[in-house]
Structures are given as C-alpha cells and as structure tokens.
Specification:
The structure is a single chain. The chain is α/β, with parallel strands linked by helices and 355 residues long. The chain has nine helices and 15 strands. It is globular, with a radius of gyration of 23 Å. The chain starts with 28 loop residues before the first strand and ends with a helix.
Length: 355
Amino acid sequence: MKQDPTAQDAGQAPHGAAARRGTFRPGERVQLTDERGRMNTITLTPGTAYHTHKGFLNHDLLIGSPEGSMVESNVGQQYQALRPLLSDFVLSMPRGAAVVYPKDAGQIITMGDIYPGARVVEAGVGSGALSISLLRAVGDNGYLHSFERREEFADIARGNVETIFGGPHPAWKISLGDFQDQVVAQEAPGSIDRVVLDMLAPWECLDAVATVLAPGGVWINYVATVTQLSRTAEAIRADGRFTEPDAWESMVRGWHLEGLAVRPDHRMVAHTGFLMVTRRLADGVTGMSPKRRASKTDFAQEDLDAWTPAAVGERSVSDKKLRRAARDASSTVQTKRNQEQSQETETRQDGFGEQ
C-alpha cells in the first residue's frame, strides 16, 4: 500500500513542511483569487465567512478541501484557493519596517551562498522577511542568529516567522541590541560561515564581522543608497582583511500575456537596494588591491551627519503602528493554534461518541 506523503512523521520532514501539505485546515492562511485575478488572503475559521461587495464565501467550503480547489460564493462568484507562496506572504504579512523584497532575498541566498547547515548571523531583522528566507536556506540543522535593536521589530518578526513555519523554528535565535557589540559577545571568533547585514551603517560593524567570520566566509550587505554603498566599499578596502567587494542591483519586469498581446508590463519592481559581497581572508593575509584603484574619498563631518534614516529616505514608524503590527503577527499565530486545538478536541469527542 502506497504511503500518503502527508502522513509522514513531522519529525522526519523539514520544519513547517507538514503545514504546506494536505487539505486546508482551520487556522490556515489561504489565498483566494477571483476571476479578474485579484487576490486576497484569509485565515480559515469554522462557521465564519469571507465578505465582499459581491456576496460572501463560507470558510467551511474550504476547510477539508484540497489545495487548488475552486469554490463559489453565495452569488456564484468563483474563487481559486491556494496556499500563499513565500513571495505572497512577505508582501502581505504584518510589518513595522520595509521588507526585503523577494527578488533581493533570492539574490542574497544565492550570491551569499547560504547552504543547508550553514551558521549565519544577520542584523536588521525588520519584519522578518529575510529571516524566513534564510531559515529555509539553512534548514532545521543550520543556525541563524538574528540581531535587532528595536524590541517591537523583533516581536513582529517573531510572529511572522512562527506563522509561516507553524511555530518557533529550531534553527533560529533572535537577540536584542547593537550587532557590533552583541555578536562578538555571543559568537566565538571564526565560528560563523555567513554574515548578512541590512542596516544603515554596515561599515561600523567591520571589526565585529572580521572577528566572527571564518576564513573564506561570505559577508553580504544590503544598502539603500549609493553613498552607503560607497562608504562601505571603501571601508572594506582600507581594512585589508577582505577580498575586493563586488556590488550590483537587480530589477524585475513582468510581462503581460494575453493572446498575441505579449509585451512588458507598464510597471516594474526597479531599484529597491544595492547588494555587495566580500569574503574573509585568512588571518595575517592582506587583500590584493585592484589594478585600477579608485581614488580615496575623504568624508567630512557633514557627510557623516547625512547618513540618518530621514536623510536616506527611510520613513519613521510610530510606536503605535509597531505595536499594532506586533499584535497582528502574534494573533495570527494564536488563532491558528486555537483552531488546531479546537479541531483536536472535536476529533477526540467524536471518537468517544463512536465508542
């Protein structure tokens, strides 16, 4: 008899995999797409309904149905039901800070060579979008230590990570505080394989990165502006403990597909940030200078003062909004847990009744 893959022992499957398989369950997030391609994500709750200006759709029609089902509202409006992909979840999850877009997260995973079992540290957790991608890459047997300065952001990230993985991830640790101080206190020298920084001034962390990163390890930075990119690159070159930095940006342009009307979309995801990668050299080795070294640039005090969140275009987020986003992220996890517990209780009661 062929074994149902959804019946595998959860301990043998990667963390969170069981939640991605099988029929729709109470407390699960489901993405509904209507006939015009508009998408909405709902959390399945028995006895409730999804309401629009075109009628309502009972959640009970979806609970127990296989993924990819087609359902109809009370007025005949059709919906296609699927589990949200990671890219869908990232763009719709509760947030307190701007998220790392999927196109950049994919580049970080690939160009940063994040592999299963790797030991990774990151700083600038934000809403947890990049943390989710990193955890998927390192796997259950890897290690991701995230550092965040603001407790509100950490709470939002924790809620989002637990939502998509169905609970705390075994490879994840999150700490509050400044990266350059905390990472050297909590991680042994040379014990980290990869460092990922998404922060305002990564050049301030140069000594800390050089301390914890193993020889040959990769350091990848995500910065928003040319001035940040320039100063980080010059600091790395002047330090001498790393290889020549390499920088790039990615742009994604979708295409309109309708019969013979095949053309680029009018809108695209253009610049979101710059990525820069460098590698740690062995102790005592000095990095090679490029054949054509750019002239050094002096930074005056007014230049240093210019690198503030407001100056580089970052919006300040109110404490009230952060607290609301943290509550939303936490409530999604709790709702799912409550629905699962309720379903287990009903199952046990039904079993007693049959006896």
